[in-house]
């Protein structure tokens, strides 16, 4: 089978053509719209998704019914990558917050490539390290930073994963990102709107002003962006 094309995922782009052929059998490209669910909490991982565009939110479902986002993933990652270590069920629900596309690879195929290729192992281990680092930072950010700074951070992370300043978002989605009530979302959006950070058309579309959002956001946005970029630029090249 011919090697997979360079599709736009940072992890796939780090693999030479001969390593990409290990992923080619049974792999296919798929697209997803805003709100599409790639995997639900408790589902067995059968596919790993390498996003080529768009943004996927990892949602944690609490026993009282609350749903809170823990992190976002775009073309820098792979949804379900932990399944390469052993058969497992998803601890999160992965939902598209920005429409896009992904390369869908059966877990069995990725596990085989992981066993056969040193480069595949290095690339996926790097990805898992960056994910753990971001999850730790998100936990600290949620504990100490005010909600308007965290909303600015989430909006910037979404903007980084789209080509347009206009982002489709519902108040429910924002409440999940922030872990707050919708009334808090309304008040926080009003604050960001007054500061010129965002504008909305009343139909679920937000237009963001990156420069003003960066001034509003907590330190976590720039810190994590730079750390992840450094790790990818240095270690993916070495891989």
Query: How much is the average pLDDT?
Result: 90
Total beta strand runs: 8
- The proportion of residues forming helix, as a percent range, comes to 40-55%
Low-confidence stretches: 1-5
Secondary-structure topology with pairs:
Layout: H1 10-13, H2 17-20, E1 28-32, E2 37-39, E3 47-61, E4 67-73, E5 93-106, H3 107-116, H4 118-144, H5 147-160, E6 166-168, H6 171-178, H7 182-194, E7 198-200, E8 205-208, H8 210-216, H9 220-238
Antiparallel strand pairs: 1-5, 2-5, 3-4, 3-5, 6-8, 7-8
Written description of the protein model:
The structure is a single chain. This protein is an alpha+beta fold. The chain has nine helices and eight strands. The protein has helices spanning 10-13, 17-20, 107-116, 118-144, 147-160, 171-178, 182-194, 210-216, 220-238; strands at 28-32, 37-39, 47-61, 67-73, 93-106, 166-168, 198-200, 205-208. The strands form two sheets. Strands 1, 2, 3, 4 and 5 form a five-stranded antiparallel sheet that branches. The protein is globular. The two termini are 24 Å apart. The model is unreliable at 1-5 (pLDDT under 50).
């Amino acid at each position: 089978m011919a090697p997979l094309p360079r599709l736009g995922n940072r992890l796939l782009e780090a693999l030479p053509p001969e390593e990409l052929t290990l992923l080619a059998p049974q792999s296919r490209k798929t697209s997803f719209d805003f709100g599409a669910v790639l995997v639900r909490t408790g589902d067995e991982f059968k596919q790993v998704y390498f996003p080529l565009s768009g943004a996927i939110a990892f949602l944690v479902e609490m026993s009282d019914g609350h749903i809170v986002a823990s992190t976002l993933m775009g073309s820098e990652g792979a949804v379900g990558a932990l399944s390469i270590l052993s058969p497992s069920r998803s601890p999160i629900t992965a939902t598209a917050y920005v429409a896009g596309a992904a390369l869908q690879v059966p877990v069995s195929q990725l596990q085989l490539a992981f066993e056969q290729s040193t480069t595949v192992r290095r690339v996926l281990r790097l990805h898992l390290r960056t994910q753990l680092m971001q999850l730790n930072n998100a936990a600290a950010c949620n504990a100490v930073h005010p909600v308007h700074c965290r909303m600015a951070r989430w909006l910037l992370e979404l903007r980084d994963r789209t080509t347009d300043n206009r982002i489709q978002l519902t108040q429910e989605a924002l409440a999940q990102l922030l872990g707050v009530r919708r009334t808090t979302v309304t008040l926080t959006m009003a604050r960001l709107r007054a500061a010129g950070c965002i504008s909305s058309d009343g139909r679920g579309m937000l237009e963001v002003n990156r420069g003003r959002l960066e001034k509003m956001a907590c330190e976590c946005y720039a810190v994590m962006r730079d750390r992840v970029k450094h790790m990818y630029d240095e270690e993916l090249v070495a891989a």
